[in-house]
Design a protein that fits this description.
By secondary structure, the chain is α/β, with parallel strands linked by helices. The chain has a single domain, classed as Ribonuclease H-like superfamily/Ribonuclease H (Nucleotidyltransferase, domain 5). The protein contains nine helices and eight strands. Strand 5 and strand 6 form a beta hairpin.
Length: 287
């Protein structure tokens, strides 16, 4: 039986090896205040429990610190940009391990519309294409599927406008980034906007059907379209990478739908999900 901090460990708890990677990246308590009563590791474990189990904050097990304390640090570190910084450092570590440059030069963009829970909050709407009432997650990942940036908006926002909100502040953050891949929703005016504002290019990956070879259609007869364009699933170049990343975060119960009152909290939990994934790969619990 594995023990953590004097209690039985939950599956979502960090191992010693994972905490060794994460501890230097978490802000430490001030030395001028009162003595520390709650260790940072337990606060992070509690946040990861909420992420993985999907429970409300008030339903945190009593073995963890008080839910008000855990939520306070979750929001504080979100406002201070701690989660983004942790993700960036772990992503750089993983890319080095993969033999790649620390900073990406190309990325893939896509969005996911998700239903919202019965909670109050801004940025909600209806996506007529997906027929979903809720929010839309605009994601940017590198060619390995690691999250680079996320922006959560109402589902009514178009992919074009969402992409502009997502990408506009990233030029200084990713100086090597020059090229994107995306689906047909990112064609049109976004191509010129990217070139003008960021100096980037984008390649549109379209759905296509390869005609079957060796089929002759007599003049004047209706062709057999099922033979010309055989049905079936086809992997789209580059786009499958971000589709896989979306599948990764959708497996996390807290992210199966958007139950956050604030879009910023939704973005923080998505970032945390990718942090957890990187920790599992950098320090597997069962190597």
């Amino acid at each position: 039986m594995r023990m953590t901090m004097g209690r039985r460990a939950y599956p979502s708890d960090l191992t010693d090896e994972q905490w060794a990677l994460l501890e230097p990246l978490i802000p430490q308590p001030s030395q001028d205040g009162r003595p520390v009563e709650i260790e940072r590791r337990e606060i992070v474990n509690a946040i990861l429990y909420v992420l993985r189990s999907g429970c409300p904050w008030r339903y945190l097990p009593h073995e963890f610190p008080a839910w008000e304390t855990v939520y306070y640090y979750f929001r504080r570190w979100e406002r201070e940009g701690v989660w983004e910084q942790v993700l960036r450092i772990l992503r750089m570590h993983m890319r080095r391990r993969q033999g790649r440059d620390e900073e990406p030069s190309a990325a893939i963009i896509d969005s996911q519309s998700v239903k919202t829970g019965p909670v109050r909050g801004p940025e909600k709407g209806y996506d007529p294409g997906k027929k979903v009432w809720g929010r839309k997650r605009h994601l940017l990942v590198d060619t390995q599927g690691h999250l680079l940036a996320v922006k959560v908006s109402g589902a009514q926002l178009s992919d074009l406008e969402g992409a502009k909100r997502l990408l506009a502040p990233l030029r200084q953050i990713f100086p090597r980034l020059k090229h994107l891949w995306g689906d047909t929703h990112y064609a049109g005016s976004l191509i010129g906007w990217l070139k003008t504002h960021l100096g980037w290019t984008i390649e549109i990956v379209r759905r296509w059907k390869a005609p079957a070879r060796g089929i002759l259609v007599p003049i004047g007869e209706e062709p057999d379209w099922d033979k010309l364009f055989p049905p079936g699933f086809r992997v789209l170049p580059r786009r499958w990478v971000i589709e896989r990343s979306i599948a990764w975060i959708s497996r996390i119960r807290r992210l199966a739908r958007d139950v956050e009152g604030l879009p910023l909290c939704s973005e923080a939990f998505i970032t945390l999900a990718m942090i957890r994934l990187l920790l599992l790969r950098l320090a597997p619990p069962f190597p």
